[in-house]
Amino acid sequence: MSNDFYKTSILPFAGIIIKLCRAYTNSQADFEDYYQEVCLQIWRSKDSFREESQWSTWVYRISLNVCLTLLKKKKNNVQHFVSDSITAEETENNYAFSDESLNLLYDAIRKLSEIDRAVIMLYLEEKSQKEIAEIIGTNPNNIGVRVKRIKIRLKKILDGKIN
Amino acid sequence: MEKSIENIWKEGFLKSDALVAPKINNLYTQKSIHIIDKFKRMFKINLIAIVAFSFTFLIVSFIIGIPITGIIFFVTLSVLVFINKKLLNDLEKIDLGISSYQYLKAFNKWINEQISINMRFSKFLYPIIFMSLVLGFWFKDAEGMPLGERLVGEILIGFPDTYLLFGIPLIGIVLLAVIIGLLVLVGGRIYKWDLNLVYGRLFKKLEELMTDIESLRS
After folding, report:
1. CB spacing of B34 vs A138 below 8 angstroms
2. Radius of gyration of chain B measured on its C-alpha atoms
3. Is the pTM of the predicted complex or chain greater than 0.80?
């Protein structure tokens, strides 16, 4: 991939990719793998972009399709010495935003099904129901209902945790 | 007052550290972990391995005196490679830029087609390979005469009442027929079992995704 393509066509939309990849990973290493993979696939598929949609929408599609079908890295089951072991808490802290509320929201989003994660991420990115339906390939009429259900679920998960 | 998730989202991403893109190194050469790329890579490696094996085995079969086995192996495996190369070409056509539903559906369709074709082929593959081994050794030269005839001669000395059909002991023909029948029956299952062992987790994930996305469409 040329550096120019990355700088001009991917980097301005890195926010989209970062937000989506964060929702499908729970460690910095996985996140970097997903991010790289999405960038690679955008570059590989760039010739199939037919300008029927906006480039940003197309980046959403690629990012989402890649995230949905990435092979999660197998956890290393090798037993560590006690002094080497990394606790779940430490792993979480290493992979956190400075905004605690955002961390809690992401943790809650990661508890949703893969498709629900996609729906709520696109909703939070202020995509219209029509756009969400187009990106996911579903019926726009059902998106509103699904978003409502997901928000209720997220509120239940976050209940009392955020002020 | 509790913040809405929309506000948490907006305010959270206003902080400068929230959207820092990771550094990208050796992107062009990095080993892809994407399912389709993994399939493509494994498919290509498998096909190359089959071609290499069939060529090597063809040569070895002539050297060790079982050319019939080598030739049948070579022809059968060539057909297998040809079919799977065509399947691989279809996989290359899947466009990542389409909607998630279309994308998952296209990928799922490809996987199901690949499994179905290879399962059908496996029903013939294992029996053909088995028969090629039997024929190869049957006609292998054993001190001036085919090994099979020599074996029948030995059996007739030990068991003179053995019933022969076309010069072959009937019990042998029955045994062959049973083994071939069994291989036809389990050939497809062996293939699917092997496939599930490697990609079972992935198939389950795809199925779940498809079910979820289809519920949104209905």
Report:
1. no
2. 27
3. no
